[in-house]
Q: What sequence folds into this?
């Protein structure tokens, strides 16, 4: 919005803050702020408190690095989950996408990104070493590489493969039902579920 004229500096400040969120333009930000102005004050206070509480109290699981309310997330602490299988994903959104398929009963490992030299992200910026340490415990039988099918995702897969190739763990990757260049969080649940169930031996994919 060019040459914006706000009748209130408070309104302008609120729009500026909402517009800082990813994917939110200034027109959308203005609609959101005007919506909040129409809400009861108690509703707005609850909204604000939820955001503040999230930022102050949310934790990362000390095992898999998923977002959690406790030191160990509900997946890692669930005795019904198969701890011998680890699904390696880029971020928390990918955990949510795979969980929504209801086709997977193992655990996860959230890297916190993928290797991307153009963005200054190397292996040391990711939770790769903690993955290696989990494998070294001897409890893990299979590691599933479920990263985005992009050049950066493939680079990260290969790096992890080199780190684990001398271990006894079975290294697999999700089937390419997920389109090349696609991200897991945007893949429909049926396709993603089938890709998890029909996973492939990773070594076969790089021959």
A:
């Amino acid at each position: 919005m060019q040459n914006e004229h706000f009748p209130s500096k408070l309104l302008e400040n609120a729009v500026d803050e909402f517009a800082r969120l990813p994917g939110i333009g200034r027109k959308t930000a203005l609609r959101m702020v005007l919506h909040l102005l129409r809400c009861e004050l108690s509703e707005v206070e609850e909204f604000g408190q939820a955001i503040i509480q999230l930022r102050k109290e949310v934790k990362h699981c000390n095992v898999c690095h998923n977002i959690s309310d406790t030191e160990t997330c509900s997946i890692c602490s669930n005795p019904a989950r198969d701890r011998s299988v680890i699904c390696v994903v880029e971020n928390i959104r990918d955990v949510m996408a795979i969980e929504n398929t209801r086709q997977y009963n193992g655990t996860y490992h959230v890297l916190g990104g993928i290797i991307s030299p153009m963005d200054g992200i190397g292996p040391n910026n990711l939770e790769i070493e903690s993955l290696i340490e989990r494998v070294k415990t001897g409890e893990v039988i299979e590691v599933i590489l479920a990263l985005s099918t992009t050049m950066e995702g493939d680079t990260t897969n290969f790096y992890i493969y080199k780190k684990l190739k001398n271990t006894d763990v079975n290294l697999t990757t999700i089937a390419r039902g997920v389109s090349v260049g696609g991200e897991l969080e945007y893949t429909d649940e049926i396709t993603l579920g089938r890709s998890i169930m029909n996973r492939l031996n990773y070594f076969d994919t790089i021959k």
